[in-house]
Specification:
By secondary structure, this protein is α/β, with parallel strands linked by helices. About 45% of the residues lie in helices and about 15% in strands. It has a 7-stranded mixed beta sheet with strand order 9-8-7-6-10-11-12. A 5-stranded mixed beta sheet has the order 1-2-4-3-5. A hairpin with a 2-residue loop joins strand 7 and strand 8. The two termini are about 30 Å apart. It binds nicotinamide-adenine-dinucleotide (NAD). Nicotinamide-adenine-dinucleotide (NAD) binds next to helix 7 and strand 7.
Length: about 425
């Protein structure tokens, strides 16, 4: 692998382990495809990164300050696009890494966007609804110069949702003096959101599961699936797969997991989670830890919670045939290689979870046109785009011997490199 370290460019603040992982992936594919060094070097770092202090009046009258981030990795192909995450482990490196992944993801899917990501370092579960609203509005106002439907369009990510997007949209609109629905995506349908957006990421993941099962020639009548994380992505993936012939044998959330080799009744589990707030204790299932569930024998493993779940420490013990990455960055580069050598197909995050940004794109387009589509239209366009990207990645991977992640990256990076070359360097 190349060690591209320029003497003129000392270590940057974003170069955490997380960020270096994304950079190493780029380095690997840059070497493989013979990317021009000046293009490679430009793509290794964020275009811009903003760190803000966000003071919030708490319910007890005191003021607490939080740290917020917004990073644009690249904007060559269009406005920056990426989610907003509330989590205590958010830092500049993580946000920069995720912004870079967004650049590759949008390019791979053929969407006219650059890559962005944002986050606030906070334990959102400790805040009241009023505190969350004030946090979101103040953060929006602190980063407002970066935002806009032609500049940067946030969307939900971990521990943010439709309500968060509604607050951002409202704060931005009040500041510019008129309503601008297209400044965010993933907002409620009643204020310009798109049908199908809420389910889009899970729908895309479920689509990739089916495509990968077909691609790998798995002929079982009811392929077995393990899903880590039972939030927006995990729960919807499980629901949609359960509706077809798949058997979901284990799911988990932050509190722990449940296992039933005969298959979990997902609609009943959903009702249970709505009532109890967790999957633990669901009738007919055995408890299982988040780490043990990753090692269960199954056809498909869907990590749909945090990054860094499959590493060189456990990659040897996985007993699935396919990994479909619902979460961003769940597999380390070392683990990716181990899984490949073991014949386990990994459908990478920039493909598997791209359903969310794809329908975000539809939402943005509908908002700009003031013309709205039916849910069937949204879903069939989504399947068209996901299908094309899956075919391209599997085809290139088979032809070149590249791991699917590297094939996906190569397609994304090639599109960007061509666009950068054509646009040239200003001034
Ligand atoms: P979410 O907040 O709706 O759900 C997260 C789930 O993960 C919850 O069930 C939570 O309990 C669980 N979880 C948290 N910590 C865990 C741990 N240590 N072990 C096991 N489970 C844990 O978030 P989401 O929107 O479903 O996002 C999940 C992942 O998918 C993230 O990596 C996110 O970046 C990625 N993603 C989300 C979208 C989207 O549209 N929501 C799009 C692309 C990628």
């Amino acid at each position: 692998m190349v060690a591209v370290k320029s003497v003129e460019r000392p270590t940057m603040e974003c170069e955490t382990e997380h960020f270096l992982m994304a950079q190493r992936q780029l380095d690997e594919i840059a070497l493989e495809m013979g990317l021009a060094p000046e293009l490679h070097e430009r793509l290794r770092y964020p275009k811009r990164a903003l760190i803000v202090t966000v003071p919030v009046r708490m319910d007890d009258g005191t003021v607490k300050t939080f740290t917020g981030y917004r990073v644009h990795h690249d904007t060559t192909l269009g406005p920056a696009k990426g989610g907003l995450r509330y989590h205590p482990e958010v830092n500049l490196g993580e946000v920069s890494c995720l912004a870079m992944l967004m650049t590759w993801k949008c390019a791979l899917m053929g969407l006219p966007y650059g890559g962005a990501k944002g986050g606030i370092r906070v334990e959102p579960w400790k805040l009241s609804q009023g505190e969350l609203e004030r946090l979101t509005r103040r953060y929006t106002s602190e980063i407002i110069n970066l935002l806009g439907p032609d500049k940067d369009i946030p969307a939900p990510d971990m521990y943010t949702n439709e309500q968060t997007m509604a607050w951002i949209m409202d704060t931005y609109s009040i500041n510019v003096g008129h309503t601008v629905p297209s400044v965010v995506t993933g907002k409620p349908v009643s204020i310009g959101g798109s049908y199908g957006r809420h389910e889009a990421t899970g729908r895309g993941v479920a689509f990739c599961v089916r495509r990968a099962v077909e691609h790998c020639g798995i002929k079982t009548k009811n392929p077995t699936v393990v899903v880590q994380g039972f939030g927006n992505v995990g729960a919807i993936t499980a629901k949609l797969l359960h509706q077809t012939d798949y058997k979901i044998i284990a799911v988990s959330d932050v509190h722990g997991g449940i296992y039933n080799p005969d298959g979990i009744d997902i609609p009943r589990l959903n009702a249970y989670v709505t009532e109890m707030g967790k999957v633990e204790g669901f009738t007919g299932s055995k408890p299982i830890s988040n780490s043990d569930m990753l090692e269960l024998e199954c056809d498909v493993l869907v990590p749909a919670a945090l990054g860094g779940q499959i590493t060189k420490a456990n990659a040897d013990r996985l007993r699935c045939k396919i990994v479909v990455e619902g979460a961003n960055g769940p597999t380390s580069p070392e683990a990716d290689i181990i899984l490949h050598q073991r014949g386990i197909t990994v459908v990478p995050d920039i493909l598997a979870n791209a359903g969310g940004v794809t329908v975000s794109y539809f939402e943005w387009v509908q908002g700009l046109m003031h013309l709205f589509w039916t849910e069937d239209e949204v879903n069939s366009r989504l399947e068209q785009i996901m299908g094309r990207a899956c075919d391209q990645v599997f085809e290139l991977s088979a032809k070149s011997g590249l791991r699917p992640r590297m094939a996906a990256l190569r397609i994304g990076v090639s599109k960007l490199a061509e666009a950068k070359k054509l646009r040239g360097l200003y001034p």
